[in-house]
Amino acid sequence: MTKIETPEFQGTHLWDRLCWAKEKLEGKQSDYRVVWEDPDNLDECAKVTVPDPNWLACALQGGILPPVEVYWALAEDEAKPDFKKHTRGYLLHNTKPIEPMTEEQAIEYLIMKDIPQRVWRDYEKANRPRLVICRKDQLPSTRVWRNAWKIDENVNKSQEVA
Amino acid sequence: MANGTIAFDTLTTSDQVNTNSEKSIDTSYIFNGVAKSWCNLQGKSTASIVDSFNTASMTDAGTGLYDTVFTNNMVNNDFCATGASGEYVDNGGNRSLGLRVRATTGINVRGFYDGNSAADMEDLNVATHGDLA
Fold this sequence. Notes:
The complex is a heterodimer of chains A (162) and B (133). A 3-stranded antiparallel beta sheet of chain A has the order 2-1-3. Chain A has one domain. Helix content of chain A is 33%, strand content 9%. Chain A starts with 13 loop residues before the first helix and ends in a 27-residue tail after the last strand. Chain B is mostly beta strands. Chain B has one domain. Chain B has 1 helix and 11 strands. The radius of gyration of chain B is 19 Å and the shape is globular.
């Protein structure tokens, strides 16, 4: 199958790039899931983040998505007390898009984009696992007691992670 | 865009087939009116995204709780979020969808079954209209 060339997208509105990708790229369902617990809300159950198939296709294609640091910059703007609306949206559109990623790299990018930093920063130093990347068949097969799901503390030894 | 651009400000149709009276619309109306994101989720068993636009991920946050994140943020929190939920095969009961959190980065929703109880939804759909960052 011929690989589709990504146009030079730096300076093109990100939303327009997504329109191009929706038309040209086949979505890819990932077998990976990110299971995480929020250290600021320990009573909450484990959450499971799923990559979007069209987003993943963009990540694998390359030249479409902005670097993750752009999202952090927008989050910093929004955290300011006088924030009313984004005035640096151009960062999404004008920053040089990132090169093609592997699926594993895309999952790591997604963690840094869509999961709070307090969860993934220094997660390996926590005294119990709070973030695990797993295959979807490692999740419980039924949703009975879904609100009681926690990451298995022996996650490295067990088949199921929650 | 490198693969071709047609730039114009107004779309006009003679509407000969229906009314035979010319109609025009400013293209900015079209851009302002289209959905800026949409997402169709399957929220039972291992939750997943069926199809979408301008969605980066979905987080299954507990029974009936689903958080979607945009790829292109919205400019502020004043956008309009809409949604509907149900089952692939109607087996009775009433389902609804509540908006929990609206942020420039995404929306969080909760599915309900027959009133007050949060419930996993097999067929869950959300869309947003408004201004992009």
